[in-house]
Each structure stands twice: as C-alpha cells, then as structure tokens.
C-alpha cells in the first residue's frame, strides 16, 4: 500500500464541505465559523450559482455523488 | 458513461511548432474527408450524453489550418444534433472570414497564448523558429473587433511561474470573457522532458497560483481562473461527494481523429502507442458505433487497468475526493502503466491547486489558523 499523500488534507476538505452543506441546507451558522466567515460562505454559494451559468469549456471534471 | 465532450481532429497538421508539443504527426497535412464528416454525424447521433447541448471541440493540430468552408460543411451536417461548437486555436490564422463563421454558428473560441511576448515567444514559435506572439495578438484583435468572447489557455513553464504579476497584468489586458486555463509543460507523447519537474518548480507553481488568487481578489476581478474555480467547486461539493474525472471514465470524452478513428479517456492517448496496449483507438466512425467500441476486448483491457489505477489512488491519496483518480495519459507516460498513482499532473493540478484553494477557503471562512501557517507559509 503506498504512503498516503496529503496527511490532514482529507480532514480539511471534509470540514469545508460540512460548512457548505450546512449553508445549503439552511441549517444556520456552524459554531466553527464566525459571522464574517459565514457571510463569505454565503457569498461563495451565490458566486457558485453565477458560475454554473458560465461557459464550462474544457471543464473535464464533474461531481459525482 | 454518458459523454461530456467530443474532441474532433479536423487535421493533425499545425502551422506552428511549439517547443513543448507532444504531437508526433503535426506535419501531416491530411484533413478530414467529406465521407468521414458524414460518418461522424451518424456516429454522434448514437453517443449517449447527459449534457444538452453536448460540447464538440475542434482541436488538432491547428483547427484553423483547414479552410472556413470545411466548417461550413461540417456545421451544416451536424446541425440536426444538439451540439455546442468549440474551437481551440493558436489564433495566428484568425481573419474576418473566421470571425463571421464563429458568429454565425455561435462557436466558443479558446485561444492558446502563453503570456506576454517574452514568455510566449520563448516556446510558441513557427516552423522557421520565429515567435508567434504578434500574429496571435493580431488574431485576438480580430476577435475583439467582431466582439467575439474567448477563453485563453496558457502552458506554464519555469519562466512563467516566476512572473505571476506580469502574467496577471497580461491576462487582465486581454480580459478573456470566458476565463483563463493553465496547463503545465509535461513529458508526454514525443515531448520527453519538462522544465517543470521537481520540488522547487512545484513550490514556484504554488506561489504562482497563490499570487494569482491574491491579485484577482485585490482587483475584484471576475475573470474566471479555471483551475482555482473548478477546485473550489470540488471543495464545496456535497459531503461524501467524489469528483469524477472525465478523462479516466470510458466514454465521457470521445476522441475522433482525422481518419475517423475513435478513442476515449485522455485525448493525449490518441497519438500514443504502447507495447502492452497497442494503439488507443478501438474503432472508426465509418464502421463502428460507440456501443461496438465499448465491447472491444482491447478497450476493456485498458479500462480495467485504468480502473485499477483509480482504485490505487482511492486507497492511497487524501486528495482523491477532489480529483477522481488522475489522468491515464500522464500515468502511462511517467510509469509505463495505468496501474499507478501520483504523477506530475497530480502534484501540480490537484495537490498544489487544492492546497491553495483550501487555504483561501479556510482563511475566508475563519477556519484553521494553525493549518494556514503550515500549508501556505511560502506565500506570506
């Protein structure tokens, strides 16, 4: 088995996704994110929606649940 | 897997001679025949797709090395199908006639340009060795004159990553409405070396991407930076999501060469042969449907090995959920097999880009002060 790369990276990704999942679900501001951080999360989601309408030329990857 | 993208090569020929090009047949002037175009249209009708319209990218060689009339005929023939036409060009040959075609058919144009003149002309030269920058800018001027939006695609070398501010100023000056994407000079195909190998280059690339993100934020620019923005999309995906990479999934990208030969997975494989696998085309639009190709035992063997490589990635790499298992063509070029894990492409476009994007998200969300210092000390 190769050595895992990235060390704590998977944990950091998981934490970011949890915050965004809470924002999408309307669950409110998680304790680990301050008010300004929460504003930024909501701004990101708005920007995200904007980008979905953008041309995705040569965007070779996508989400898969 | 339903198709995301059709990549079609109208000719293998390229009118310029970039120092890092991996295509072995770029002097071959053969162009796709009318009969192959007709067969291509019938083939496209049988391709399953979950995107409407499905993107069809004319990508060669240099796609504008064939006449405007070629595309007029091709677009007419393909008009019954829900396709969005794209062309990725070096822009040297763009004229009023090309612009009229782009407008008439709403073609999305991507321009390959590496940066300001001194950076671009170091590698993107014509067959006499002369820099092409001025001619590319002439093509871009035509696009602007006709109000045709475009994206830009730049290959990064060791010179570029040392010049982030200069590169950003240049990108802003072009104002590409459809954004900017980056590639890194890679050892692939007949190009067997790269100026971007090694830990110091990786550090320089990290500084470059970090600085670009900072400059974009400073300028409040809306210019899309493909790598950073795609990675951000992957990072904020629903919990438990895995990113699926199109070039390691069968049929997600379908590559069709000038003779109508059909392949899938990484487009770069189309110009590669290998002792174990032979060539990487498994049928032809004249004689095969996509369903026929998917049953070919040679295709199945490649698919099984690519899957084994993805499984190794899944078990060994913490970046897997934002990557999806690496690029098969890079694995084959670097290790001689698909059953492999980390490549140069992974180190740059997954690990470094993810680290930069994670750092920015954490900072903006007020998460993980300790990890900020550990991960991105070089950019402070």
Question: Could you explain the architecture of this structure?
Answer:
The complex is a heterodimer of chains A (65) and B (380). By secondary structure, chain A is mainly alpha-helical. Chain A has two helices and one strand. In chain A, helix 1 (9-25) packs across helix 2 (35-52). In chain B, helix 9 (226-235) crosses helix 13. In chain B, strands 6-5-4-3-2-1-8-9-12 form a nine-stranded mixed β-sheet. In chain B, strands 10-11 form a two-stranded antiparallel sheet. Chain B has helices at residues 34-45, 68-78, 96-104, 117-120, 133-145, 158-161, 164-174, 199-218, 226-235, 290-295, 297-316, 328-335, 344-365, 369-376, and strands at 5-8, 54-58, 83-89, 108-112, 150-156, 180-184, 242-245, 253-256, 261-264, 273-274, 278-279, 283-284. The model of chain B is unreliable at 369-380 (pLDDT under 50). With 380 residues, chain B is of the alpha/beta class. The chains are: A mainly alpha (65), B alpha/beta (380). The interface between A and B is large, with 44 and 58 residues. Strand 1 (61-64) of chain A pairs antiparallel with strand 7 of chain B.
Provide a compact summary of the structure.
The complex is a heterodimer of chains A (65) and B (380). Chain A is mainly alpha-helical. Chain A has helices at 9-25, 35-52; one strand at residues 61-64.
SSE order of chain B, one letter for each helix or strand? EHEHEHEHHEHHEHHEEEEEEHHHHH
How much beta of chain A, percentage-wise? 5-15%
Helix content of chain A: 40-55%
Name the average pLDDT of chain A: 65
Global structural class of chain A? mainly alpha
Largest sheet of chain B: 9 strands, mixed
Q: What percent strand of chain B?
A: 5-15%
Shape of chain A: globular
Instruction: Please report the total strand number of chain B as a whole number.
Output: 12
Largest protein-protein interface: A-B, 44 and 58 residues
Helix share bin of chain B = 40-55%
Q: What's the average pLDDT of chain B?
A: 89
The helix/strand order of chain A is HHE
Individual helix count of chain B: 14
The unreliable regions of chain B are 369-380
**Oligomer description:** heterodimer
Largest sheet of chain A: none
- Rg of chain B, Cα atoms, Å: 21 Å
Gap from first CA to last CA of chain A: 26 Å
- Helical stretch tally of chain A: 2
Strand order of the largest sheet of chain B: 6-5-4-3-2-1-8-9-12
């Amino acid at each position: 088995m190769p050595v895992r790369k990235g060390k704590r990276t998977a944990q950091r990704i998981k934490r970011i996704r949890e915050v965004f999942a809470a924002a999408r679900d309307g669950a409110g501001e998680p304790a680990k994110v301050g008010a300004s951080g929460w504003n930024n999360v909501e701004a990101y989601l708005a920007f995200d929606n904007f980008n979905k309408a953008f041309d995705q030329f040569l965007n070779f990857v996508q989400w898969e649940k | 897997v339903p198709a995301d993208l059709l990549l079609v090569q109208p000719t293998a020929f390229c009118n310029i001679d970039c120092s890092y090009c991996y295509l072995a047949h770029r002097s071959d002037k053969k162009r796709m025949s009318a009969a192959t175009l007709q067969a291509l249209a019938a083939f496209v009708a049988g391709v399953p797709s979950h995107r409407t319209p499905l993107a069809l990218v004319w990508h060669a060689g240099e796609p504008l090395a064939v006449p405007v009339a070629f595309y007029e005929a091709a677009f007419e023939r393909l008009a019954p199908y829900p396709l969005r036409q794209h062309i990725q060009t070096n822009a040297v040959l763009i004229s009023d006639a090309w612009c009229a075609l782009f407008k008439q058919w709403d073609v999305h144009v991507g321009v390959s340009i590496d940066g300001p003149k001194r950076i671009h002309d170091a590698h993107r030269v014509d067959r006499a060795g002369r820099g092409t920058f001025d001619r590319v800018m002439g093509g871009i001027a035509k696009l602007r004159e006709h109000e045709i939006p475009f994206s830009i695609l730049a290959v990064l070398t060791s010179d570029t990553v040392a010049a982030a501010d200069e590169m950003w100023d240049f990108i802003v000056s072009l104002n590409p409405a459809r954004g900017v994407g980056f590639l890194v000079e890679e050892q692939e195909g007949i190009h067997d070396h790269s100026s971007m190998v090694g830990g110091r280059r990786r550090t320089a690339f990290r500084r470059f991407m970090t600085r670009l993100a900072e400059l974009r934020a400073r300028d409040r620019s809306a210019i899309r930076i493909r790598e950073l923005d795609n990675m951000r999309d992957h990072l904020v995906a629903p919990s438990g999501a895995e990113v699926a990479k199109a070039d390691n999934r069968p049929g997600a990208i379908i590559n069709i060469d000038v003779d109508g030969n059909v392949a899938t997975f990484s487009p770069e494989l189309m110009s590669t042969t290998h002792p174990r696998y032979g060539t990487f085309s498994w049928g032809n639009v004249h004689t095969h449907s996509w369903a026929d190709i998917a049953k070919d035992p040679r295709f199945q063997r490649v698919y099984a090995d690519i899957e084994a490589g993805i499984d190794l990635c899944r078990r060994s790499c913490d970046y897997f959920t934002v990557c999806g298992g690496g690029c098969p063509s890079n694995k084959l070029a670097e290790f001689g097999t698909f059953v492999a894990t980390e490549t140069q492409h992974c180190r740059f476009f997954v690990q470094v880009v993810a680290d930069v994007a994670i750092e920015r998200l954490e900072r903006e969300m007020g998460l993980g002060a300790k990890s900020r210092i550990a991960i991105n000390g070089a950019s402070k």
